[in-house]
Amino acid sequence: MTSQILPHLRQDLIEGRWKPGERLVEPVLCEQFGVSRTPLRDALRILEGEGLVELIPHVGAVVTKPEAADIAGTFDILAVLEASAAEKAAESRNPQLVEKLKQLLKRMHKAVESNQTTRWVTLNDEFHRLLVLETGNERLIEIHEHLMWHVHRVRHITYHNLPFSAERGHQHDALLERIQQGDAAGAFAEMRSHVLSVGKQVLAASNAKKD
Fold first, then answer.
1. β-strand partners of 63
2. On the CB side of 149, how many CA atoms lie within 13 Å of its CA?
3. Which of 2, 25, 69, 81 lies at 20 to 30 Å from 87 by C-alpha?
4. Nearest Cα to 71, choosing from 201, 210, 208, 209?
């Protein structure tokens, strides 16, 4: 039962169903999912380990608040993981991967041209995830997925404060060019710089949201 309700609880937390600092009411959740408190509490303990909730004695599960240090730290790690993935992609120069990335970029450009922000974000995540999956490194893939839960969450909170312009639609072009050229070091540097830049934007948007 825990494995069945865990993804739903996690998704609700990521999408902001509850605000930071809000308490999760166990009887309500038990009724919603049709489970007893035992599997629910097991799921909440897992979510606490992931940093999405905090279990407070005599209070229960409380939604955590994304802090500046947490956001910056997440993107620091993410930058290295995705840079390593880009580096490996440049080393292999897999034609099938390159073609998939090209098609994604075309769709991303169209999304920018038609001002489809949500569409662009989805395609952008797919672009980055594709590079990570291509590594075949299961541990890297797992860590990346866990980090992205926090990215999705803070991005959802700050969504309307993030910049969206024509420039964003072309920021992956240089990376793809490095990969096509087999420039592993260049691909690593390009991806790391890109992810850190996005992290600064998200952090700035988060601070603006507080103001």
1. 53
2. 19
3. 69
4. 201
Q: How far is CA 202 from CA 31, 92, 137, 138, 156, in A?
A: 36, 32, 27, 27, 10
Burial 158-170 (b: 16+ CB within 10 A, else e): beeebebeeebbe
The answer, yes or no, to whether residue 107 has pLDDT greater than 70, is yes
pTM of the complete model: 0.84
Element (H, E) at 61: strand 60-63
Closest CA to 77 of 148, 138, 21, 28: 148
Task: Give Cβ neighbours of residue 124 (< 8 Å, ≥ 6 apart).
Answer: 108, 172
User: pLDDT tens digit string along 55-73?
Assistant: 999 899 999 987 777 889 9
Q: Is 175 helix (H, G, I), strand (E, B) or coil?
A: helix
Euclidean distance between CA atoms 40 and 26, whole angstroms: 8
DSSP 162: S
**Distance (Å, rounded) from C-alpha 7 to C-alpha 151?**
16
pLDDT of residue 87: 98
> Residue 189 burial by CB count (10 A; 0-12/13-18/19+): exposed, middle or buried?
middle
- Is residue 211's pLDDT more than 70? no
Residue 51 CA to residue 204 CA, distance in Å, equals 21
- 3-class secondary-structure state, position 142: helix
Cα gap 126→35, rounded to integer Å: 34
